[in-house]
Predict the structure.
Amino acid sequence: MSRSLRRDDGFTMIELLLVCVISLVVFGATLTAWTSIYNSNRSVEHQNDNAEAARVALDRAARQLRNLANPTVNAITTIKRATDYDFIFQTSDPTKTWVRYCVDAPGTAGATLWESEHQDAFNDSTMLDGCPNTNWNRKVSVVQGVTNQLGGLDRNLFTYECSVNALASCPASEADYSKITNVGMSVWVDAKIGDRVSELNVSTGVFLRNQNEGPTAVVTEPVGKLQALRWFLNGSGSSDPEGRTLEYFWFEDTPPTASEIANTPCTQEFPGTDWRGVTYTKKFAAADAGLSRTFYLLVRDPGCLTSLSKPITFKVS
């Protein structure tokens, strides 16, 4: 009876080397794929973190803008600068904080959005230049990798809408700052320029509910003579950009000074007021016949902003 014999030898060296090479190739490919996936995931996370930082910054800016300081007689506008990449405004908190959002180098890959705050008096000569500016009380980098202008693009960080009385291009100058009624903010961010993760955009818009453009006082000419020594002045041509109800104050010969206007409480009558109302019927004394008289109209809106008309002069008869 025959019996088969089994070989006791194992793999040859060549076979072992071949297996090792194949294993290394498979492991290398797996490691490469895993590394690519990991790096891609990290890039996406980094980009999302950067976009979230932008979202937090714009949410904070929106809250501050909704708390924009109310204009006063002494400070008609509470916006100090409104350009494409630099916005400075004052809030109505107890310390009347000045806030600034600006981009330090808009056209570079390393551009950064900065937020600055200042609670003391604003100095135009030292606090408007540079972003960030060392003269501000507080300054912090809030968004990095801002790409609004990268690669020759020009996607404004800030856009503005103005009241109906504004110029087509608004703001055309600082004189238009009080007319700004809406502010749009749009940040493009790219955490790592050149990787496969696309840049992201975060945007918001804010209606400036505390903005208040000053009224315009107008006395309609010619002045009407009702009868002998009795004259009629009409201030109904006065207007308010926001359509608010105005108060009318008439003055004969001498209007209030700028100091008197600024220091008169909003609930009180101006010193020297001859008459209050949209129209003014003036009855002169016989001794006034032949004399010239000058009248002024001062209007005040609910926000305490005022406007003084040009002088209206006529000879009493």
Notes: DSSP finds three helices and 16 strands in the chain.
